[in-house]
Design brief:
With 349 residues, the protein is mostly helical. The protein has 15 helices and eight strands. Helices cover 50% and strands 10% of the residues. The strands form three sheets. The protein has a three-stranded antiparallel beta sheet with strand order 1-2-3, with helices on one face. The protein has a three-stranded antiparallel beta sheet with strand order 4-5-8. The chain is extended and about 80 Å long. The termini are far apart.
Length: 349
């Protein structure tokens, strides 16, 4: 049972098609030596009974079959939006590999091919789907190297920009939707909000449920993204209260906001341009709310409660962005300290 000689692929990766007891095992490496060593390790594990034997069913299962079976088996516990994404991957991605049987796939090459087509984050999402799908079919997927996802700077509005944004949205058909997002509601929560969860007498909104895009269109979820997402949010922008109160009582049934997802995204960016402020999208308005509260010194536990975040780490890492104005003020305080010290020293001389 000799290990075949490694060959170099066009991508630069070294490859060995190892066969053990009728099982075809693709082995890859960055160098010829690395690939050969990996193949020898697999062979040694097999000879010592440490390598799991792949079931016959997995050997004859294609990647597409494994993925579709995984969706069907788990769709009851997956969100409609997740099912929609998974089905989209099946119809649009890894087409050169869909009809290959699982043991025939060079998994690292699959990743490399996808990286040439879509972003690093998108590939990471794809891998988070196809790997458990293959493993659920009985095939132990080997380790692959994923490209690091770049951390893009997320846009949001500074406190003074928020006021300009609100003024630019006043009287517009989408005013309510955008102001709800400036209260920390997610887009799916805004679209799922119904009038029976709006209490204008107490200026209170109960966030309960969300509307997401499923395989066959919009789907109303009875539960939110996380347990802490179900919450009560006070109406803190007087303009939102006025806009909600202006809706005739006979029309206060069903959904509060009826605009589509793409329409709301366009409305948010259009309003930013009209106001002459930093252009941001729907989620940027949620970040703007968090940053405003942080900048105003709101207790973090209170902010978590209003925004529906589960933990401090998530809130800090993704949402809370210190306003640039506050950062400049902090810099000026430090500069002032040294300038005063220098002036005092000069006067003393």
């Amino acid at each position: 049972m000799k290990v075949p000689k490694a060959r170099k692929l066009k991508s630069g990766t070294w490859f060995i098609q190892l066969r053990l007891d009728g099982e075809s095992i693709p082995v890859t490496g960055r160098t010829e030596t690395e690939c050969t060593n990996a193949a020898n390790l697999i062979k040694a594990e097999y000879l010592n009974g440490l390598r799991v034997k792949i079931p016959k069913s997995a050997k004859n299962t294609t990647l597409l079959e494994a993925c579709e079976s995984y969706i069907e088996r788990n769709k009851a516990s997956l969100s409609p939006a997740t099912v929609r994404s998974y089905k989209s991957y099946c119809s649009r991605r890894f087409k050169d590999y869909q009809n290959k049987k699982l043991p025939q796939i060079d998994w690292q090459q699959l990743i490399n091919d996808e990286l040439g087509e879509v972003s690093e984050k998108y590939v990471k999402n794809i891998w988070a789907f196809i790997r458990p799908a293959a493993e659920a079919a009985g095939y132990p997927v080997p380790h692959v190297k994923l490209a690091k996802v770049p951390q893009n700077e997320l846009s949001f509005l500074q406190p003074d920009e928020i006021l300009k944004f609100c003024e630019a949205a006043k009287g517009r058909s989408y005013e309510i939707g955008l102001l709800l997002e400036l209260h920390g509601l997610r887009l799916s929560e805004v679209k799922g909000l119904t009038w029976d969860h709006v209490d204008l007498d107490r200026d209170l909104i109960t966030v309960h449920g969300a509307m997401v895009r499923g395989p066959a269109g919009n789907v109303m979820k009875k539960t939110n993204k996380t347990e802490s997402s179900t919450r009560a949010v006070p109406i803190m922008i007087p303009q939102l209260h006025d806009a909600l109160a202006a809706v005739p009582k006979k029309l206060r049934t069903g959904l509060v906001v009826t605009q589509g997802t793409n329409t709301l995204l366009d409305d948010a960016k259009r309003t930013c341009r009209r106001a002459g402020v930093t252009e941001t999208g729907n989620h940027g308005l949620r970040r703007s709310f968090a940053s405003l509260c942080y900048d105003r010194g709101i207790n973090e536990r209170q902010l978590m409660s209003w925004g529906g975040w589960e933990d401090f780490q998530t809130m800090h890492k993704i949402y809370i962005k210190l306003a640039a104005v506050s950062e400049l003020e902090a810099q000026e305080k430090v500069k002032s300290f040294f300038q005063k010290s220098e002036t005092a020293a000069q006067n003393a001389n």
